[in-house]
Design goal:
mainly beta, single chain, 39% strand, Immunoglobulin-like
Length: 154
């Protein structure tokens, strides 16, 4: 089960540049969706990722207020069970593309995370909830995406 969660989280967290926004939905927790969400190879739900690949997630969001620290969190939701997956780079400030921390209020920032989809991951389907938190554990931006891990040859 943990490998499945890792796989699903990696899928969502690791999907890279796409020509259009990925099919994400609101987290329904009052935290804003990113202005733009790009997941490599994902233009329709569920996002299909292949074992042995690397998924790149690109987010663009507006800082709602002054922020000193960022922390990403990926949660895989499989059969109603939520499992937190440790993100490869826990310091979200290190994943900013056009900026550095601290971030000013109303600043538009770009965040990029690469996630390897290991060959050992099981073939599974689920949802990934990806949230970026500030130094006070308050959500800055959040989205949910359906994902499916498939064999490399699929």
């Amino acid at each position: 089960m943990k490998q499945f969660v890792s796989s699903v989280v990696l899928i969502v967290a690791g999907l890279a540049f796409a020509s259009s926004d990925a099919p994400v939905t609101d987290c329904k927790n009052g935290v804003s969706l990113p202005l733009q969400t790009q997941i490599s190879g994902c233009e329709q739900a569920p996002c299909v990722v292949k074992k042995g690949s690397t998924v790149v997630l690109n987010l663009t969001f507006r800082a709602p207020y002054y922020i000193e620290e960022l922390r990403p969190e990926a949660v895989a939701i499989i059969s109603g069970i939520s499992i937190i997956y440790p993100v490869a780079e826990p310091d979200g400030c290190k994943s900013l593309v056009n900026s550095t921390c601290p971030i000013n209020a109303d600043e538009i920032v770009h965040y990029q995370l690469q996630v390897p989809i290991l060959s050992s991951y099981p073939t599974v389907s689920g949802r990934i909830k990806f949230t970026i938190y500030d130094e006070f554990n308050k959500g800055v931006t959040c989205f949910v995406v359906a994902a499916r891990i498939v064999a490399a040859g699929s």
